[in-house]
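Lab meeting, item 3. Inverse folding demo.
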């Protein structure tokens, strides 16, 4: 990327807004990015992720309501299972979240957007005794990732299995998937998306079995992915972090820039 690498939070947020949101690129084959009036959205299959990634920073109330209504109409026309408006804490107008709720969207738990310069992150991988880190490259590995995710978050992991296999099949060059193994048991997993041409790589899905937390497994997963990003010439890592992982990431050198909240619209079955 051409931008000077920066650590200034305000400049970094402005860079993220422009490169990763306003000028967003499709995250995977089969997806497309559209500029639709005052928003930029990513769209694909009806059952996949469809949603708004950027909205104009000068939106007023009337334009905001019009944009929200248009996205609801788009979701209905396209037959999407769900449509997400990814709202950031600094987006305008200030009451955009309330306007989304009024239009039928449901808010999920907010997360914190954190970004770090890759060059400033530790890349030495130190796993606790008895745990090894494996890269996932096939169906068996995807199954282990799903099992680790289920243990970490207490939810069905079949969606992750499908996602990992799809990404490995369609674009393995820009995707990294990891599972931490204690003997034959998966105890943690994580993945990374490398956004070509942006300078940014995204860390996703890091989660550890409660019985293995506090031993450095999560930190090792971050360090491994930071090393891969450095080898491939990426400038920044970004994370949408829960309150569980945010303090760890800040200790590792990540800077909190803003919050991000998913607002989900699901059409009413006819």
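The presenter then showed the designed sequence:
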């Amino acid at each position: 990327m051409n931008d000077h690498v920066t650590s200034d939070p305000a400049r970094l947020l402005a860079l993220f807004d422009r490169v990763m949101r306003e000028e967003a690129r499709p995250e995977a084959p089969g997806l497309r990015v559209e500029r639709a009036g005052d928003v930029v959205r990513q769209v694909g299959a009806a059952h996949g992720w469809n949603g708004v990634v950027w909205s104009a920073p000068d939106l007023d109330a009337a334009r905001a309501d019009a944009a929200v209504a248009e996205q609801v109409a788009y979701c209905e026309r396209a037959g999407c299972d769900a449509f997400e408006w990814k709202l950031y804490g600094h987006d305008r107008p200030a009451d955009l979240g309330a306007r989304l709720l009024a239009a039928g969207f449901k808010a999920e738990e907010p997360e914190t957007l954190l970004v770090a310069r890759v060059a400033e992150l530790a890349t030495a991988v130190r796993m606790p005794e008895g745990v090894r880190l494996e890269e996932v490259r096939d169906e068996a590995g995807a199954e282990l990732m799903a099992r680790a995710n289920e243990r970490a978050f207490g939810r069905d992991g079949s969606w992750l299995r499908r996602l990992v296999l799809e990404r490995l099949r369609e674009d393995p060059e820009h995707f990294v998937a990891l599972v931490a193994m204690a003997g034959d048991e998966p105890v943690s997993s994580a993945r990374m998306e490398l956004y070509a041409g942006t300078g940014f790589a995204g860390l996703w899905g890091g989660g550890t079995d409660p019985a293995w937390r506090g031993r450095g497994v999560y930190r090792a997963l971050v360090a491994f992915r930071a090393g891969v990003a450095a080898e491939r010439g990426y400038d920044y890592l970004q994370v949408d972090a829960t309150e569980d992982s945010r303090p760890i990431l800040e200790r590792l050198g990540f800077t909190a820039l803003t919050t991000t909240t998913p607002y989900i619209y699901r059409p009413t079955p006819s």
